[in-house]
Amino acid sequence: AFLNQHCGELVSVCEAYLAPIILSEKGAQNLNEELMVKHLHTLGVASLHCPAKVGKRTVLLVESVLTTRSEKLPGCQEELPASLPLSQFKANSMPTKVRAHGVITLGKLCLQHEDLIHKYLPVFAREIEEGKEVAVRNNVVVIMCDLCVRYTNMVDHYIPNISACLGDNEAIIREQTLIMLTNLLQDEFVKWKGSLFFRFMVALVDPVPAIARYVTMVLAQ
């Protein structure tokens, strides 16, 4: 009860800070990037301890960090919409660093709300395939793997999308994907099946020696 009350208050404080910036046409022009990141982070962490305090408005505020501004946001208090609110994150005026932290916060909201998983998993999967911002895509990989621990059966369908990142053009994404998938394999949340083993084999010849050595170690275990 203590955590639920005080984390609920934190959620409200974060919403009150974020809403004017996100809802205003020019709100992003003079934003304090570090404060935005801190409030998004706090919102995500606090929401884990008070899922009942997280409403549709909270979700759409975070979503609006990652896409074009929602005109429906101010009055949203009812249940989540029945249809997927967006098919892919869209570029907006928010800095990449803020958007990357927005992904992490949205992922934390998904951890406590199974209905959000159904809505956002396809969006996450499309983002890692087609997104242009490395930091955002990198954090999507992290979130999808975290969600696999909580909702293994639902995320398992998207393991091929995640493992495809082992062949990404960006070394940081290849390395992050390798580490996250290895953890899932070692904890038996993911099985060696389908294209996963093949993609690990291809990663044996990764142009970054440290990544190639890591794959060799994983396959030798």
Automatic annotation (TrEMBL):
<dbReference type="GO" id="GO:0005634">
    <property type="term" value="C:nucleus"/>
</dbReference>
<dbReference type="GO" id="GO:0007076">
    <property type="term" value="P:mitotic chromosome condensation"/>
</dbReference>
<dbReference type="GO" id="GO:0051301">
    <property type="term" value="P:cell division"/>
</dbReference>
<feature type="domain" description="Condensin complex subunit 1 C-terminal">
    <location>
        <begin position="136"/>
        <end position="219"/>
    </location>
</feature>
<keyword id="KW-0132">Cell division</keyword>
<dbReference type="GO" id="GO:0000796">
    <property type="term" value="C:condensin complex"/>
</dbReference>
<keyword id="KW-0539">Nucleus</keyword>
<dbReference type="InterPro" id="IPR026971">
    <property type="entry name" value="CND1/NCAPD3"/>
</dbReference>
<keyword id="KW-0498">Mitosis</keyword>
<dbReference type="InterPro" id="IPR032682">
    <property type="entry name" value="Cnd1_C"/>
</dbReference>
<protein>
    <submittedName>
        <fullName>Condensin-2 complex subunit D3-like</fullName>
    </submittedName>
</protein>
<keyword id="KW-0131">Cell cycle</keyword>
<dbReference type="GO" id="GO:0010032">
    <property type="term" value="P:meiotic chromosome condensation"/>
</dbReference>
<dbReference type="Pfam" id="PF12717">
    <property type="entry name" value="Cnd1"/>
</dbReference>
<dbReference type="GO" id="GO:0000779">
    <property type="term" value="C:condensed chromosome, centromeric region"/>
</dbReference>
<dbReference type="GO" id="GO:0042393">
    <property type="term" value="F:histone binding"/>
</dbReference>
<dbReference type="InterPro" id="IPR016024">
    <property type="entry name" value="ARM-type_fold"/>
</dbReference>
